[in-house]
Specification:
Length: about 190
């Protein structure tokens, strides 16, 4: 009788790659005593002549202020990300991460010129709203999608208006909207194929 062995598999290369890059950014920032976050892994208004400005538009989703900030975002991404990558594919996950980075980065530069933004929470909110599209059927809107949008987006609007903290509610809202729009488009394209 042959003995069966378990093996470790790379089940979600884009999500795992993103998590690894976020962890590497956290370590690099620690080693450089905060220089890396300021130069590469956060976004803020700066000269268009500075080539790092363009890197920061994407790189801010990799940076985190500390372990608590990192683990708060990454744990949920690790829980829901692999399921979404299996459902929608690796290239779509990469597209969602990149689009969310650009949308949240540019909006932050334009609307919040004196504030520094970093962290994967925009990507996290995009993935959270995208999960609501997993079970959607043609010409139906699941109650879960409505509730998730109401609680997550509504909660962020409320907190943005009435709670003073260092959380970028705008990033959460834009991330959630990005995930919703991309989820809707992917679902519509899938339905048009049949």
């Amino acid at each position: 009788m042959e003995k069966k062995h378990f093996r470790v598999t790379l089940n979600s290369p884009v999500i795992l790659g993103f998590v690894f890059l976020c962890f590497a950014a956290l370590l690099i920032n620690f080693i450089t005593l905060g220089w890396a976050n300021k130069a590469l892994f956060s976004v803020y208004r700066s000269s268009l002549l500075d080539p790092l400005s363009y890197i920061r538009i994407f790189g801010h989703v990799l940076g985190h202020a500390d372990w608590s900030h990192f683990s708060g975002n990454i744990m949920t991404i690790l829980i829901i990300g692999p399921m979404l990558e299996e459902k929608y594919g690796s290239m779509n996950m990469l597209f969602i991460i990149l689009v969310t980075a650009v949308v949240t980065g540019l909006a932050h530069v334009l609307l919040c010129p004196n504030v520094v933004l970093l962290g994967a929470s925009g990507v996290l909110f995009a993935l959270i709203l995208l999960t609501s599209f997993v079970g959607i059927k043609e010409k139906e809107i699941p109650v879960t999608l409505i509730l998730v949008a109401l609680f997550y987006i509504g909660g962020q609007i409320y907190e943005g208006l009435f709670v003073q903290d260092n959380v970028s509610n705008l990033t959460h809202i834009l991330g959630g909207m990005t995930g919703s729009v991309i989820g809707f488009v992917m679902h519509k394209n899938k339905m048009n194929k049949y």
